[in-house]
Specification:
homodimer; Jelly Rolls; Recoverin, domain 1; 9-stranded antiparallel beta sheet; Transmembrane prolyl 4-hydroxylase (chains A, B); Pro_4_hyd_alph_FE2OG_OXY (chains A, B); calcium ion binding (chains A, B); dioxygenase (chains A, B)
Amino acid sequence: MAAAGLRPEAGSPQWAPAERDPAAAARPADGEDAPVRPLCKPRGICSRAYFLVLMVLVHLYLGNVLALLLFVHYSDGGGGPAAPRRAPGPPPAPAPAPLARLEGIKVGHEQKVQLVADRDHLVRTLSLKPLLFEVPGFLREEECRLIVHLAQMKGLQPSQLLPTEEFEEAMGAMQLHPLDLFRLLDRNHDGRLQLGEVLAQTRLGSGRWMTPETVQEMYAAMKADPDGDGVLSLQEFAAMDLRDVRTFMKRHRAESGELVRNSHHTWLYQGEGAHHVMRSIRQRVLRLTRLPAEVVELSEPMQVVRYGEGGHYHAHVDSGPVYPETICSHTKLVTNESVPFETSCRYVTVLFYLNNVTGGGETVFPVADNRTYDETSLVQDGVDLRDTRRHCDKGNLRVTPQQGTAVFWYNYLPDGQGWVGDVDEYSLHGGCVVTRGTKWIANNWINVDPSRARQALYQQEMARLAREGAADAQPEWALDRAYGDARVEL
Amino acid sequence: MAAAGLRPEAGSPQWAPAERDPAAAARPADGEDAPVRPLCKPRGICSRAYFLVLMVLVHLYLGNVLALLLFVHYSDGGGGPAAPRRAPGPPPAPAPAPLARLEGIKVGHEQKVQLVADRDHLVRTLSLKPLLFEVPGFLREEECRLIVHLAQMKGLQPSQLLPTEEFEEAMGAMQLHPLDLFRLLDRNHDGRLQLGEVLAQTRLGSGRWMTPETVQEMYAAMKADPDGDGVLSLQEFAAMDLRDVRTFMKRHRAESGELVRNSHHTWLYQGEGAHHVMRSIRQRVLRLTRLPAEVVELSEPMQVVRYGEGGHYHAHVDSGPVYPETICSHTKLVTNESVPFETSCRYVTVLFYLNNVTGGGETVFPVADNRTYDETSLVQDGVDLRDTRRHCDKGNLRVTPQQGTAVFWYNYLPDGQGWVGDVDEYSLHGGCVVTRGTKWIANNWINVDPSRARQALYQQEMARLAREGAADAQPEWALDRAYGDARVEL
């Protein structure tokens, strides 16, 4: 079990496991955070030398383990969310102006915005936690068709593949002390591992989506839970041979429907010189979010996603937690720091529905506007609210795809000083299974570094490069290589 | 039943029934809206001539009926909350700057503020709906004692008295058609009156707090509900002789514990020349809320409230709904309009705990941060969440009195343009029964007119009067007569 991939928290980013084609594995996917990537050890569980050996195949996996360790570290008092959460600051640059944030007012509130010259759009508040809006008619029908066409011409690739055997072999070489691992998993500190606690760490599944049934099956195969109550004592846990977990996983290759995510996607450039429709959509996003042009222009390209019949994406959040050790993928070029975590820092998600889906395919926000957020209560009485194949009907809010409609939400809370604060756990969302037909969507993410100084430095640097006409005057992804090989360079 | 006092909605302001001393009856009370006061009829149910006859004794009561009529009018499509909600505009004055609004970020978030020279205070977010904060140590212990002392020297009066017999006689002369009344009460339009629908209209009780038991007792005494299921059909309702309701009420005089509110209160001046502690508290409130000085200085004086053992205040909201027909008590002097509703337009409530209570006396917010607000679900399965004598334990959020702590919240949502929008229904709150000892609190309300233009005009006019050194250079209440006889002048 130790070697089977850990995740920091329910609702934290899923990860794309490594695969034979490292370029493909390295691309972040719809609603996925960039894989968490360790550069140094936070707690001495693994040594730096050891790291280097396993690096290429293992970094994604280790990221999961380290992310969990860090999560527990910051949750259990080792600083806590109230502790300073910023990475060591870069040299000062002029502080960017406060980031605009639309007011939700209340669910159902409508406000008019002018996004294009010839008409107004209505922006309707769908929830306050997360701060989520709907904009009918954001795209025209022919624009939706064009985007699908451009994506098909470019070609789509699977959004998630299972780990290779080499990867799992490499994992096998890594061992955490069972007591450490037990402590990490036992979130309620009752000295026992409930099914919900195991399921909450979806990364344990190495990309497979774990259900109460699959975990119980595994326990049975390993004779790990003799009394069959689905709860492991420390003794039962320690008695497990973790190599058996790998053996079990190997024998039970997951079908695509058993993955965290089952879709194909590609990326469409929106920067200068792009198709005029792609440019126009970026301008509309700029007007809609009221964020600075330099922020929007330096953000990721558009991701286009196709879900076939049976396609789904279990619930997740689009951006990673903010620890002092975190840096953002988009600003990392301007930092000389060695920090263990990289995440994609997606302040806002704008999701476009490109077609009407014949059956299913809703976007679900399982805990939207819940009074409280409690990770462990996501999995109760055998019902996992994040499971978009089984339990979409139990989620608080479901948006039915409507061609041309955009929904958008903030993945981060404000920090109270006009900048980005903590990740909003209520932004947990997923794609319900498509029961009939095909579902096409696109995503625009707006990337903002939670470190205001680093975002400033990044913008300054990119502006300088642009003035100097350097090839690097556009962000990495604008050159269409970021999602190629960038992520395997450690 | 027609003649027994209606209220616009659960959580809307309670009212102080008329009494022999009209001056006392006219004072608004802790967390109460100024009594709704009709100046003209909205729907032709009562004529203006009739009005004048009953005016002095009946205006509060009629206010309730009219408020309910208006509420139904605006709820059932006669414009709706999305319709223009402002009273006809006064002549233009320079628009006041946007109103500051603290950011809640998330429950448990803490921000530091400097309210006094010698220390910082922590402002902790208690809920987002309503936007509610707690400030420990806002008042020093000796300041709390001083306020209690000043209030005792001034003398406290009962916050609520029962209607007199004359009042109820006058009520008897008023008749609504039973079909109209039935339609008003039948909120779910199922052609039957559930207990919850009757209880939701707490004004029907004429200041008595209605429980499922008292309503059922009344039905039994009047033989109104032969099948005893607590549900009235239209036939059963129409068959009731409404005079019997009055007879029943007369025979069952309510004890103080059976009132909507059971406390004593008085008002302490905080304007220029007031005790330096009272001035200083106003300055702290100004810094805390970041609202313009002229808004805070022109707001109500401090209300000090004593709850004896057994004291309580059932849940209510502090300000009235915003209809086109609404004017605010504080700005009405600058309007020449004849509009049927007056409410106290309390944008912010700051509540100070002046002592530690031996038993009970918490402030409860029954629906704080609920996912949805549904008036009828406040009363379900015989449990009325607004009942602070019985069901405080079931409320979402309870604040235990702690000497010197202030809590404050916004009674209105923002309008999205930097001004006051709709009343926030989630601000519903009450005082739990004091089971042991005495509870002392104080309230500061900050009054803002939802009509930005009228607030501007009011501020302009008050500034002009101040420059001219007129006696009216201070708001009505600053002269300590607003809460004397102002409210009986029609």
